[in-house]
């Protein structure tokens, strides 16, 4: 049986936090009807989320690795690095379970943008922005051009049903057998995961999610039911010098929104 921990506290907002509203045209343009990445290994790792509630840190580390994979290389991110980031910004102390209380996603994104996220041989700084977690077209645009949305979800007991081999349901959906348990989302079971690809944009179509060291399928219907927050991240340091970023003028708006937010937070 695989151990799985949670760690995403209920969503909060911070004054002036960057949002994808400054990239309005990017978010509103018609997204690709599907995004198939079965030929790309995103390199997702557990990063300590089997023993600690560090999913918000593991999600950032795996976003880095997924971005690198799309650009045909890989970045070494270790469990120790993910736990160090988690501890530095939450007060978690290894060996003291009382300090392993999880984190607020926007606070972890703020910390990464302000202080960087240490990986092997370098420190990376994201540009990020929050978005409507139910804007399916916008989420698909984030997946297509900015690697993956960084989601906060709240699981129901039914989502975590395990078979005799300890495996989760092959597809998370809101329509579950009664034996799976309570289908009501539970705020005490908050989790951070990433959206990687999708077969289409209808409720029954499938989204590939990155979580707990692997890939998990879910319907859009399930994702809408369970998602309570969503954010976009981008890692300029991981792109080639000649890489084109979407809608350059709007991208600059997002960079400015990040700069203004961090400047105000430091004041």
């Amino acid at each position: 049986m695989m151990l799985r921990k949670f760690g995403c506290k209920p969503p909060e907002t911070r004054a002036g936090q960057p949002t994808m509203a400054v990239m309005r045209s990017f978010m509103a343009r018609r997204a690709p009807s599907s995004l198939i990445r079965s030929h790309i290994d995103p390199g997702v790792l557990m990063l300590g989320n089997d023993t600690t509630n560090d999913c918000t840190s593991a999600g950032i580390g795996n976003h880095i690795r997924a971005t690198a994979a799309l650009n045909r290389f890989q970045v070494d991110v270790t469990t120790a690095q993910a736990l160090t980031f988690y501890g530095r910004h939450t007060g978690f102390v290894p060996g003291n379970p009382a300090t392993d209380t999880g984190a607020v996603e926007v606070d972890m994104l703020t910390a990464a943008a302000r202080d960087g996220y240490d990986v092997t041989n370098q420190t990376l700084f994201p540009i990020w922005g929050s978005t409507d977690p139910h804007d399916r077209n916008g989420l698909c645009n984030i997946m297509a051009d900015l690697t993956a949305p960084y989601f906060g979800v709240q699981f129901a007991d039914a989502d975590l049903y395990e078979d005799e081999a300890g495996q989760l349901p092959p597809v998370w959906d809101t329509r579950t057998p009664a034996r799976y348990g309570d289908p009501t989302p539970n705020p005490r079971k908050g989790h951070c995961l990433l959206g990687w690809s999708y077969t289409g944009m209808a409720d029954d179509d499938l989204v590939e999610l990155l979580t707990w060291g692997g890939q998990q399928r879910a319907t859009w219907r399930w994702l809408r039911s369970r998602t309570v927050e969503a954010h976009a991240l981008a890692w300029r340091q991981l792109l080639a010098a000649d890489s084109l970023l979407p809608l350059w003028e709007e991208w600059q708006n997002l960079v400015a929104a990040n700069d203004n937010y961090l400047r105000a937070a430091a004041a």
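The mean pLDDT is 96. The longest strand covers residues 190-198.
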